[in-house]
Amino acid sequence: MTKFKTIIEPFKIKAVEPIKFTTEEEREEILRKAGYNVFNIPAEDVIIDLLTDSGTNAMSSKQWAGIMDGDESYAGSRSFFRFEKVVKRITGFKHVIPVHQGRAAEKILFSIVAGPGKFIPNNTHFDTTRANIEFVGGTAVDLPIPEGVQPDVWHPFKGNMDVERLENFIKEKGPENIPLVMLTVTNNSNGGQPVSMKNIREVKEVCSKYGIPLFLDACRFAENAYFIKKREKGYENKSILEVVQEMFSYADGCTMSAKKDAFANIGGFLALNDDELAIKARNVLIVTEGFPTYGGLAGRDLEAIAQGLEEVIDENYLVYRIRSVEYLAEKLIERGIPVLIPPGGHAVYLDARRFAPHIPPEQFPGQSIVVELYRVGGIRGVEIGSVMFGRKDKETGKFIPHTMELVRLAIPRRVYTQSHIDYVVEVITEVYKNRDKLKGYRIVWEAPLLRHFTARFEPIE
Ligand code: F0G
């Protein structure tokens, strides 16, 4: 950008939203009422909200202008055609099906292709992806590379899939039982880690060999493309658009949550090449989401998404984005706080096993840290560990922990400034200093699916 080393936000702030401040005593009471589950806390009572980067982004003035300009026609809306054109330019897929958010695309796709006896391999399934596969009776299988589940091991593309394991898995289960293979870019559940172009290509080769389609879970495709440009040989002089187009060129379709790398507050799409599958998908769409030219969205949302997709592939934005996440990780590492390395594209992940080694996985060390960050500084993060993914063995009832115990601090796009992040560093440092006092938690109530959203906890005294 310039010869100066300070990377500045590539935008000015036009509208602001006040933050309400609470005291530690107030937050203690709020936590108790929320059953020590930060999903149950009113957002107004959160000072810095790092629960998710999903739907929490700041839209640009051009996106807001698009909101005013949206065409709300039921069929054939002008906003749909703009949206479709942008999605096609980026992904190259033939059919573009708008939906109200990413999981709606997953629901449609898996209700058509998955079911009992069907297996869906992924580098690592996000929780809703896994849930949608399991909901129709299918089996979701995670096949990350070994480095992908070791928080303290550096690897440029920790989101990669283990290609050898994939091929063995296909041979073992039979290609006829694997309706599609998925790659999540970036790999959210293992640290927002990127997948290399080489890996996408190799996964595609295996898929082609057995006649299995490849789908991308593309929520954070632009962040993934930026990592490819920075870390993979041969891509340094390509534009982000070129990298993105090559990534999608190896896939037969994608699911997308526009709440991430499209800067929208709601929306998503399913895009694919197969005509027959598209007909089936549109049939489900009409029953559950809406007419094919609006899906579950208003015309104005389609405008915001189209504009957002154009903005996210701007390299100046991505330089700032990835650096601002790295900045937080760097400060924590300097203070000796265990974080997953390298930092991901959309979030910094604390390694709860090393942060609170005295709390065993069955007492949820990540949950304990999440609660403490809120109590001490009003910061809301999210546990990605055994609360979210731990399970009981169906036969023995024995607790099976998740591969990692993480606390994700997701950074909403274009929302917080450097001083907000410096405050976050200070709070985490304080919690880390007093880490010996962190307590384990037990679940006192849980739902059968996606329990982390609504579970209630109590501290183990
Ligand atoms: N796939 C990935 C990789 C995701 O991270 C998400 C959402 C989805 C699919 C589902 O999309 O929310 O629009 O239905 N992730 C959010 C998060 C919720 O906090 O990471 P959605």
Architecture overview:
The chain is of the alpha/beta class. The protein folds into two domains: 24-53 and 314-459, Aspartate Aminotransferase, domain 1 (Alpha-Beta Complex); 61-312, Aspartate Aminotransferase, domain 2 (3-Layer(aba) Sandwich). It is built from 16 helices and 16 strands. The protein has helices at 24-33, 61-69, 78-91, 102-113, 127-135, 163-173, 197-209, 221-231, 240-249, 275-288, 299-312, 315-334, 352-355, 365-377, 386-389, 418-433; strands spanning 48-49, 95-99, 119-122, 139-142, 181-184, 214-217, 253-257, 268-272, 347-351, 379-380, 382-384, 391-392, 399-400, 406-410, 441-445, 456-459. The strands form six sheets. A five-stranded mixed β-sheet has the order 2-8-7-6-5, sandwiched between helices. The protein has a three-stranded antiparallel β-sheet with strand order 9-14-11. Strand 12 (391-392) and strand 13 form a beta hairpin. The longest helix has 20 residues, at 315-334. The mean pLDDT is 97. The structure holds ligand F0G. Residues 52, 54, 101-103, 126, 128-129, 184, 188, 217, 219, 257, 259, 268 line the site of ligand F0G.
Principal-axis shape equals globular
The CATH architecture name of the largest domain reads 3-Layer(aba) Sandwich
Q: Which ranges are low-confidence, i.e. pLDDT below 50, for 5 or more consecutive residues? A: none
Q: Number of domains in the coordinates? A: 2
Bound molecules: ligand F0G
Pfam families: Beta_elim_lyase
GO molecular function: carbon-carbon lyase activity
GO biological process, one term: aromatic amino acid metabolic process
Domain Aromatic amino acid beta-eliminating lyase/threonine aldolase: 49-425
